[in-house]
């Protein structure tokens, strides 16, 4: 518990989309939330809104991750490893290798770095680790390339960690969302090309929202402490499988 007597949660990538929504839902569920992200102005506004704290953190920076651990202190109840993203949609034959490295760095090394650094506090706080995976961690798709590879790796990190922590009071969980229409995911993937980003959701009546995922984050975090939700795969009703999407033209 924290000095405010609320249980403490950390959300990375909290400046927008699923991260910001998760911070709001956890605050509503009674947590003091440390909102961690690169964009300080955004997380400061969010922290003010939800009576939490803002810590500027690029999960690929060792210094930032160390500062985050320092801000957290000795006990932590929930860590949402949400920071991540897809950069590019090119086939493997045209792979942008720098983008692939960047994706591995943020989606995999970032998760490992933040988890490693906050693990003592999570053990002390009988905490819950939630990793934001993806259906891209379960199946390949054309153009998925580096993102598919990185999310498969993130899933492997989750499963490894759960085995390694089997005798500790720490839960290890993954949420694997399919099509979520969030503020920045598709736009980032297509380097700001709004037309290409919009095409991802074209004709889909109701893609998932960031709030749909945040609701699951808060639900996982508030289960009785002996209940470990290993993995939740969640898609909009219109997406029966990665390639099987109902679109109305
Ligand atoms: C997002 C799901 O289908 O764009 O992680 O890879 S997908």
TrEMBL record:
Pfam families linked to this entry: adh_short (PF00106)
Keyword rRNA-binding set for record: no
GO molecular function: oxidoreductase activity, acting on the CH-OH group of donors, NAD or NADP as acceptor
Keywords carried by this UniProt record: Oxidoreductase
Electron transport keyword on record: no
Family stated for the protein in its record: Belongs to the short-chain dehydrogenases/reductases (SDR) family.
Annotated protein name in UniProt: SDR family oxidoreductase
């Amino acid at each position: 518990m924290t000095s405010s007597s609320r249980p403490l949660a950390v959300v990375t990538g909290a400046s927008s989309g699923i991260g910001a929504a998760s911070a709001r839902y956890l605050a509503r569920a009674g947590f003091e939330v440390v909102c961690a992200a690169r964009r300080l102005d955004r997380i400061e506004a969010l922290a003010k809104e939800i009576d939490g704290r803002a810590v500027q953190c690029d999960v690929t920076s060792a210094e930032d991750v160390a500062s985050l651990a320092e801000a957290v202190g000795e006990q932590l109840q929930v860590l949402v490893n949400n920071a991540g993203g897809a950069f590019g949609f090119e086939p493997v034959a045209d792979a942008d290798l720098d983008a692939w490295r960047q994706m591995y760095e943020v989606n995999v090394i970032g998760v490992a770095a933040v988890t490693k650094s906050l693990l003592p506090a999570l053990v002390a706080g009988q905490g819950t680790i939630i990793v934001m995976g993806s259906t891209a961690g379960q199946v390949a798709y054309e153009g998925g390339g580096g993102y598919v590879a990185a999310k498969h790796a993130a899933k492997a990190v989750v499963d490894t960690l759960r085995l390694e922590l089997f005798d500790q009071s720490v839960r290890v969980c993954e949420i694997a969302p399919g099509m979520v229409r969030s503020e920045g995911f598709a736009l980032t993937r297509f380097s700001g090309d709004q037309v290409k980003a919009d095409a991802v959701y074209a004709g889909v009546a109701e893609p998932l929202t960031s709030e749909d995922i945040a609701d699951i984050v808060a639900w996982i975090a508030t289960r009785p402490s002996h209940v470990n939700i290993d993995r939740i795969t969640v898609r909009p009703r219109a997406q029966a499988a990665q390639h099987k999407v109902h679109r109305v033209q």
